[in-house]
Amino acid sequence: MSKVSSVVATYHTHAEADQAVKELQRGGVDMHKLSIVGKGYHTDEQVVGYYNTGDRMKYWGKMGAFWGGFWGLLFGSALFMIPGLGPILVAGPLVAWIVAALEGAVVVGGLSALGAGLYSIGIPKDSIVKYEKALQTDQFLLIVHGTAAEVANAKDIIESTHPAELGMHSGEAVAA
Question: What are the extents of the domains in the chain?
Answer without folding.
Answer: 2-8+22-167
